């Protein structure tokens, strides 16, 4: 059964963060807050954990577009090719409710790169999740938690999320109520930036 860990964006308890890092390094799967919806994630370098997430969501790794959560822009060139124009735009818009789709490079873990040339990059405006990634030392995978409810697409209450996922993940982080609008996805593989999915972020503010 998962552990339910309460964290706050200000004055975060580093012992709890260390516990979460140990879990991720051991191949754990966690549910965590972002600046949009709650996410399901693991260490991007742990193939077994990636496969677990695919099982939980009923998807195949090579058929699904996973995104990475990075701490800041310095990690991005490790995994993706980014033009000067895209970098300038991301610098203005991030941290924020956007996922930028970029061409991946050969450092993207094989389990995620099969049959795909692009990666999604997220730097959410949420100190809890960014701190976890910073302390881990590399990105975590992110995929949204969807609700089976026809009206509410995304689960927002961490206690209800815990009830639903407690037997399939290792840790559920309670960072307060989540949003039910996902991130705005932007195709930045060329400098003709295109919104693929309109979510919480308004790209026009940064162009």
Automatic annotation (TrEMBL):
EC number: 2.7.7.87
Keywords (A to Z) from UniProt: Nucleotidyltransferase, Transferase
Alphabetical list of Pfam families matching this protein: Sua5_yciO_yrdC (PF01300)
Membrane-spanning residues: none
Keyword Ion transport: no
Domain YrdC-like positions: 14-201
Gene Ontology molecular-function annotations: L-threonylcarbamoyladenylate synthase
NCBIfam families: L-threonylcarbamoyladenylate synthase
Listed name of the protein: L-threonylcarbamoyladenylate synthase
Organism: Flectobacillus rivi
């Amino acid at each position: 059964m998962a552990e339910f860990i309460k964290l706050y964006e200000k004055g975060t308890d580093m012992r709890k963060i260390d516990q979460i890092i140990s879990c991720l390094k051991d191949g754990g799967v966690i549910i965590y807050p972002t600046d949009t919806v709650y996410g399901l994630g693991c260490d991007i370098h742990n193939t077994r954990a990636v496969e677990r997430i695919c099982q939980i969501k009923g998807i195949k790794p090579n058929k699904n577009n996973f995104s990475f959560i990075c701490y800041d822009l310095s990690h991005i060139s490790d995994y993706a090719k980014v033009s000067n124009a895209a970098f300038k735009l991301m610098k203005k818009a991030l941290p924020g409710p956007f996922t930028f789709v970029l061409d991946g490079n050969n450092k993207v873990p094989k389990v995620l790169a099969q049959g795909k040339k692009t990666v999604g990059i997220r730097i959410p405006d949420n100190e809890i999740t960014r701190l976890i990634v910073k302390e881990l030392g590399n990105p975590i995978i992110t995929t949204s938690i969807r609700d089976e409810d026809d009206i509410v697409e995304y689960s927002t209450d961490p206690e209800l999320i815990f009830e639903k996922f407690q037997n399939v993940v290792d840790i559920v982080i309670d960072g307060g109520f989540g949003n039910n609008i996902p991130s705005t996805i932007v195709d930045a593989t060329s400098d003709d930036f295109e919104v693929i999915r309109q979510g919480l972020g308004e790209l026009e503010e940064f162009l």
